[in-house]
Amino acid sequence: MKVLKDALGRKEESMMNRIVTLPIGSLALALALVVGAGSPTPATAQSDMRTEEVRFAAGTTGTTLRGSIKGYESVVYRIGAEAGQRMEIRMRTDNGASYFNVYEPGRGPGDEALANAEQTGPMVPDLNVFDGVLPTSGVYSVSVYLYRNAARRDETANYSLDISITGQTGEVVQGDFADGLQGGPDFWEVRLGDPVGSLNVRNGPSTGAATIGRFPNTAILRNLGCRMNEGRRWCKIEATAPGGITGWVAGEFLAESGGAGVATQLPETPPAPAADTDALVPGTPYHATGTIACVRGADAALQDCAFGVVRESPGSGNGSVTVEWPEGGARVIYFEAGTPVSFDQSQADQGLEMTVTRTENGINIVFIGEERFEIPDSVIWGG
């Protein structure tokens, strides 16, 4: 019995020695994990993060956003504003562990925040309320997230964000440290997700301003400076040929370009005129027939449309082009001196506007409402 007790005693002592001699680093790590388990921390480091661009309706200074996050998800809302303007954000949520951070232009989750709405302080008069005068011009980020403890439990937060930006902008952009509003490149290139889409040109920096023209994808525009309005960047541009239109376009569809080259509003030097005589295509009233690229609606795909051209006199650039839709119907576009100037207008077409741009390789891009036609110079000039 004594031998057995001695053996058990030695085993118990050996086990105690192993516990006592646990490496200090491992013990510290274990203690840190225990302590950290009760300390609430944001779940942004491992977030499944998505980004959304914020836009205000034309002529308004704010909007209300609604969303939902679950577990480690987070949402980053991007809003354009200028230094000196006042931004107010109020979040309502059904989960007390959901908050938001506000980041200055050029920063985001993982960087130091301008304000953290989980605790009151400068610019945070109450929990989940931001109210401050902005120090920098550019695109601000608002990140909505769940605290790590709530994220680990895979909780859900349904929320709404009331966002407003008020205060007038100055004549000159102040505090422009991130977006190149005051400077920027000499030229922009139009970059659209839809290669056959077009970018509206407006007479002011607002979606409520009148459309005065359109530019196709890859058009090169001269940069006249950008400002923030309605939560987004607007850039004043000018077409690159003498006499081209000047107006405002949405900045998110522009990319820096090396120089001028395409898409003007006026034709360049016309091609050499055709011969003095221009015979009709047998069996038709047209001097030439063929196909051109066309689009009938905003969501329609680019297709080929048959056309016929009537040239009033050889070499004048005057005449008309009749374009036939594959599904039926036609559109007539009238030219003077090689430039599209008007179109046939039915009762149903009242209020439609026609705008024209031109590429450097001699194609007239004609927009009539949501219709689009790509008419080469050779159609009206011949040759």
Element layout with pairings:
Elements: H1 2-20, H2 24-37, E1 48-53, E2 62-70, E3 73-81, E4 86-93, E5 98-103, E6 115-116, E7 129-133, E8 138-146, H3 148-152, E9 156-166, E10 187-190, E11 198-202, E12 211-216, E13 220-229, E14 232-239, E15 246-250, E16 254-257, E17 288-295, E18 303-311, E19 319-324, E20 330-336, E21 339-343, E22 354-358, E23 363-368, E24 371-376, H4 377-381
Protein name: SH3 domain-containing protein
Domain SH3b: 198-254
Organism: Rhodovulum euryhalinum
Annotation keywords:
single chain, SH3 type barrels, SH3 domain-containing protein, 3 domains, SH3-like_bac-type, Jelly Rolls, 5-stranded mixed sheet, 11% helix, 383 residues
Notes on the structure:
By secondary structure, the protein is mainly β. It folds into three domains: 48-166, Jelly Rolls; 187-257, SH3 type barrels (Roll); 288-381. It has helices at residues 2-20, 24-37, 148-152, 377-381, and strands spanning 48-53, 62-70, 73-81, 86-93, 98-103, 115-116, 129-133, 138-146, 156-166, 187-190, 198-202, 211-216, 220-229, 232-239, 246-250, 254-257, 288-295, 303-311, 319-324, 330-336, 339-343, 354-358, 363-368, 371-376. An eight-stranded antiparallel sheet has the order 21-20-19-18-17-24-23-22. A five-stranded mixed sheet has the order 1-3-8-5-6. A five-stranded antiparallel sheet has the order 15-14-13-10-16, with no helix packed on it. The radius of gyration is 32 Å and the shape is elongated. The protein starts with a helix and ends with a helix. Residues 198-254 form the SH3b domain. It holds the Pfam family SH3_3. InterPro entries: SH3-like_bac-type. This is SH3 domain-containing protein.
